[in-house]
Amino acid sequence: MLGRRELQIVNQLLSASAVVRTRDLADQMGVSIRTIKYDLERVRDWFSERQVALFSQPNKGYWLECDASLLMELRHELSQAEHLKLYTSRTMRVRRILVMLLLSEGYVTAALMADEIDVSRNTILADMNEVERLAGRFHVELSREQRSGYRVLGEERRLRSLLEHLLVSNMNNYEVYKMTTRITRRDRERNFQPMFDSRILPEYELVESALAHYFQEESREIWQQLDIMIILIRLTISLKRLQMGHAMEGYQVLDIGAEKSDIRRSFIGFMQRVYLQKEFPLLRAEYRYCVGSYASGMRETDIAKLTEDMIEFVAWREGVDYGLDQKLYTNLFAHLSLRLGQGGLPGNEFNPLNSEIKQQYPTLFGHVYEACKKFISNEQVIQESFISFIVLHFLVSLENQQVHQRKVRTLYVCSTGRGVARLIKNRVEAGIGQVEMVAYCSIVEVEEMCQKHAIELIISVFPIESTLPVVVTDALPKKADLEMIRQEVARILLEVPAVIDAYEAVDLVRQSSHEEISEEIILKGFEAYQQVKDVLADEMDRKLENGLLLHIFLMVQRYYFNKQYDLVLASEDSGRWELKERLTAVFEQCGLYFQEAELDAIVYYFK
């Protein structure tokens, strides 16, 4: 069997859209080029056993040539091999032990755990301190009872949050892709089963089948409001924990008549049918848990203050003046509002960033983790996936830049179609000037978005099949990923005619509700005000500062709804052209283009 590093090399080759160089592999894995070459000989034998040729060329690198269907089969085999290999590691044993305890009634002995994981009893005993440490991060207690064994104790929402984290953290890209497509496309022609504990597989299979039928019956609008993976995992956990006799909080049945949205009522009806298959009513707390709504007993967070405190703390620890970057505040505020603003339980988004972020940026990761522990309520569990996404905001603040030239229209495909698309956009566009990331989506919407936005290139964290060029990258694109994108972009610019400029670039924020529109206007208004305040502080009339803030907010609101002041109101005062030109430059940096009359009105707030 291949070793862990060799499995990682196989994964790189299967996912690569360009030639893989030994130097890049050596840098990523922290070993010498000679060691990588020895590993590649074993990898070549592995591919040969499967009738796949691994090509190589001096001063160029290694690559595969085989059809897409065979690549999918190899990825599935690799997925199984990775899990089998990882089960020998302590990290995976600790996760399996905790899953076993969370899905078992009563105490579980060390001997039983040793038999199931196929290690010695002494190995299990040595792992239990690490088990206790990981459980403690989620405010879950590990109880030890002599001659009885171990069990976990804690509030139900914390136990479920830990279980959700364990299930999601064990997944790889291939599994998420297959789990999603088996629902969205009912893609069941291949034998696929996620590497879940056998105790929860029956509930998972029930939910997966029900979701697949529901997806075919309902419009896609519902899937733009709900995260398929979170619903799939949480509904599975809910059914299993109810079977074990553990409800979320009380037994109040959900009143479907109180829901005004037709889409939500439809989804509630679906959930009722799923619970009835296990002879359970749909409880109000279970529904709110599954869709991520407000959880009782959790106090809401002041997101504005939290954002300011986190930026100030990380800036102090890093020695970087992040406070000067208003876009960091705007983007981080929006991200934290989405995750914590409703006081709910943030979902464990599938996110292979954790290990990469911790490895590549350990100091920044540690400082963000300190900030989260310091400023976020203990009632809300701080998970590494959550921290990684926040780290990305600070990384983007360092790397953000704008370039204007002929660009390849690009679609970004991520696990949920939400979340960090704007961050990835900034990272890729900053590294490759010829890329314009015009839209993002989940796996469900790829074909629709390609047609709608005249896409020329797809960047995806999943191995997907498409008639367009696809570059598969890590969720946080590394140097090798950017090089693959750069090569493909260069080829497209050389071989493919430019797309007719009849499509407007899409800002990577989906605006599908009045709440989201209002949030965008508020954030944009605040961003514009801060920019004006920073650039024109000396010219501002301090007595009119509050009035200026309100005026800018209303300006942005008028701009958004195309109701700017009429040009007939323009002033003949030519003495303030310089001020108006400076204001115009500031607003254009924020993506705002005001008419002359708007500028004439706002200059009265300045000296």
TrEMBL record:
One of its GO terms (biological process) is phosphoenolpyruvate-dependent sugar phosphotransferase system. One of its GO terms (molecular function) is protein-N(PI)-phosphohistidine-sugar phosphotransferase activity. PROSITE patterns: PRD_2, PTS_EIIB_TYPE_2. Residues 408-497 form the PTS EIIB type-2 domain. It holds the Pfam family HTH_11. Residues 298-404 form the PRD domain. Keywords: Repeat, Transcription, Transcription regulation. It comes from the Bacteria. This is BglG family transcriptional antiterminator. It comes from Listeria rocourtiae.
